[in-house]
Design a protein that fits this description.
Length: 150
């Protein structure tokens, strides 16, 4: 029983942190990415890892169907922005002006406001949350969103 609570707590923290990285202003995103030597698509790859958290939290009744739908829309927008032909959408400049990133930011802010009471959350340190042992950090052994593997 306590193991389930820990899993829910880890899933909650992971979801809040990944949403935080999607909702902050582009300048904060780029500074964070630079600090940890990550790439723009790491924001989306980290959110992709949060799918497991979303399922667990929905099954536990911590998030409702409407929230699941909002979170799925974020994922759908990020998926639509993926692939080599969409690489221009994964630049620092795109974080500021691209319609997809602006919509993702808006949806993430709405979700965080509902889940955490405010969208303004502290930026998490990289690697601070490992909600599930089978969720590697962003980009580790997975294809890049830009269609170009490291």
């Amino acid at each position: 029983m306590s193991e389930q609570r820990l899993s829910e707590a880890g899933a909650w923290k992971y979801l809040i942190e990944t949403l935080t990285m999607l909702d902050v202003d582009a300048g904060d995103q780029t500074a964070w990415l630079d600090k940890y030597r990550l790439e723009t698509d790491d924001l989306a790859l980290d959110y992709e890892n949060a799918r497991t958290s979303i399922v667990l939290l929905a099954e536990a009744g911590r998030i409702d169907v409407a929230m699941e739908s909002r979170l799925a829309r974020i994922d759908a927008i990020l998926d639509a922005m993926s692939g080599a032909e969409q690489a221009f959408r994964w630049t620092y400049e795109a974080l500021t002006a691209d319609a997809g990133w602006l919509k993702v930011r808006q949806l993430a802010r709405e979700a965080l406001t509902e889940l955490a009471g405010t969208w303004q959350q502290p930026l998490p340190p990289w690697g601070s949350t490992v909600a599930f042992s089978n969720c590697p950090g962003p980009s580790l052994g997975r294809p890049r969103r830009t269609g170009v593997d490291r």
